[in-house]
Specification:
eleven-stranded mixed beta sheet, TIM Barrel, alpha/beta, single chain, 15% strand
């Protein structure tokens, strides 16, 4: 059913008042899904119009969009979308910054440690001395990534494990906010064999010292880029320092579509949100900023790849990963990060007069406000 925006608002205001653990009846669930479909259809129509304005738009085997030189497309992303997945390695449970878009926002002091001298790989705890055993018996991934808050809080612990995976010829990339980088630790990472370093430039508000560290990293590490959630604040800061950033010689900009969880959604409660395939919940503006930057990159001939790391891309990633793991046809780990639908989160977009549904129809009998649903 193509529910009208007026009826959608009426029903979601009602659903938002219900106890969080109250289960909806079947017809009420149909109404919820109809509203989600209407919002997502309208969002996708806006994006299609933006994509049409991007010259030389490329795809990676129809799994993601990007612009720029294919040779500079990050190998870590190729591993994620085409290879045998991307194994996340966890170590550091602390960070020196507090970002509103962080998935761990508000719980930084409650993040469990991995364990002294241990690394979490594939959900299992390992000592560095276990890596020879792991590499001899495990199916080697095409790539691994060092995640979990800010690795540079204790970056000296990473050199040994990076060297071992480099010897095994497994592509490695690491994420950082860039504020704790120095010539010494960047050089040590390069000498250990790190292939790719990704700076969350939005975490520091495009700080000058982080931009300088991006240029410094390029001296020692083969591939260096930016990966940050697209927010209006980042877009404004990036535009002010665009040439300074591009002059660092970076290879790519991964424009991550910001998706929300129970920790950070409160920081975006008044924004227009949508839900993608009943999975990730995101602000509408996040991917629109990505597409705006991609168009600008083409028009101004930026010497970098700009990658649309969207919810669609993450859906393709999970399909690829499960298929490579031998999962059944259609298997995926992509899912909503909320135990219950946060109906109140969608009231802003339904109340926004500037956001229109593509097509509307009257509700059929039995679905209208005031009628008994069974």
């Amino acid at each position: 059913m193509k529910i009208s925006k007026k009826d959608a608002l009426c029903w979601f205001e009602f659903f938002a008042m219900l106890p969080q653990d109250q289960e909806l009846m079947v017809r009420q669930q149909e109404l919820v899904y109809a509203v989600f479909a209407q919002i997502e259809t309208a969002v996708n129509a806006r994006r299609a119009a933006l994509r049409a304005q991007i010259p030389e738009l490329k795809t990676l085997e129809n799994r993601t969009y990007y612009v720029g030189d294919p040779e500079k497309f990050p190998q870590g992303c190729r591993s994620c979308l085409l290879g045998t997945g991307l194994t996340a390695i966890r170590k550091t449970n602390r960070c020196n910054l507090k970002c509103p878009f962080c998935y761990n926002y508000g719980e930084m002091d409650r993040i469990a440690p991995v364990g002294e001298g241990m690394w979490e790989i594939g959900g299992t705890k390992f000592y560095e001395t276990d890596l020879d055993l792991l590499l001899s018996v495990g199916k080697r991934p095409t790539g691994i990534s060092y995640v979990y808050l800010e690795p540079f809080m204790e970056i000296e612990k990473y050199y040994g494990i990076i060297a071992q995976f480099a010897k095994a010829q497994i592509h490695q990339h690491l994420y950082t906010n860039g504020t704790l980088c120095t010539q010494q630790n960047l050089q040590a990472l390069g000498e250990a064999g790190l292939d790719e370093l990704r700076f969350n430039l939005g975490a520091s508000g495009c700080a000058d010292r982080v931009i300088e560290n991006i240029a410094l990293a390029k001296r020692y590490i083969p591939a260096v880029g930016i990966e940050t959630p697209m927010t209006p604040e980042f877009y404004e800061q990036f535009e002010q320092k665009k040439q300074q950033i591009l002059d660092t010689g970076l290879d790519f900009i991964n424009c991550a579509e910001l998706h929300l969880n129970p920790n950070n959604i409160g920081n975006y409660a008044d924004e227009n949100l949508y839900i993608a395939r009943h999975g990730y919940i995101s602000p509408v503006w996040s991917r629109e900023i990505t597409l705006t930057l991609m168009r600008q990159a083409c028009q101004e001939n930026w010497p970098v790849v700009v990658h649309d790391c969207s919810n669609d891309t993450k859906f393709a990633r999970d399909l690829n990963l499960r298929a490579k793991e031998g999962g059944w046809f259609g298997a995926s780990g992509y899912a909503c990060e909320f135990d219950a639908v946060p109906y109140e989160a969608f009231l802003s977009i339904l109340r926004d007069d500037s956001f229109a549904f593509v097509q509307e129809e009257p509700l059929p009998p039995g679905y209208r406000p005031g009628e008994l649903l069974f």
